[in-house]
Amino acid sequence: MAENLKLYTNPMSRGRIAHWMMEEIGQPYETQYLRYGEEMNAPTYTAINPMGKVPTLVHNGAVITECAAICTYLADVFPEAGLAPTAEEKAQYYRSLFFAAGPVEQAVTNRTMGWSNDDPMKAGMLGYGSYERAIAGLEALLGDGPYICGDRFTAADVYVGSAIGWGLDFGTVPETPAFKAYRDRLNAREAYQRAKAKDDAAMAEFGPNMGG
Ligand SMILES: N[C@@H](CCC(=O)N[C@@H](CS)C(=O)NCC(=O)O)C(=O)O
Q1: Which of 5, 20, 89, 115 makes an SS bond possible with 195, Cβ 3.0 to 4.6 Å?
Q2: pTM to 2 decimals?
Q3: Rg of the Cα trace of the chain?
């Protein structure tokens, strides 16, 4: 069956994570760029993603949202790309993906918003404990590398690597040697470069209207 893959995204968004993953799996796909505001909230789009957010992937009629889910889904349904974990890699793979998509994302965004908890008694209620602990946990996941699962690049690297790359770009994660070396290793990948070139071209074409 011919695959029908359509990615709804915006070049100034987390959609870059999904776009990179699309390039990694090497299947033909269609990209639809949506502007923030009216286009993301149009009924035709909220019928697909009620959040009115990007990215959204539609694969043969099935809707997949959430960047981490899109990365793992694509690795699973296109095993020939070799980006799904082996049985031995699964613990580290899932642990890293869920940790980055949950605790790390919350720790980083809360801090960016200026929301902090100063009560040590309440730190245990936060899934990420504290920003410092979450970042230390993230760095520990990189281990000896070169990738999350050791010697092999997997879909977990697309997601975790994007979190680290974006964090370094926006100054929301510290510039540790381990984070920088990992980011540089991933950014050298051809699939990353292709996705980046497409998104950068879309930004140049659509200009500030692509922004919020
Ligand atoms: N948890 C979602 C977050 C998606 C998200 O927040 N996307 C932002 C852009 S980075 C968005 O579409 N914002 C538009 C809006 O909320 O109006 C994911 O990981 O995919």
Answers
A1: 20
A2: 0.96
A3: 17
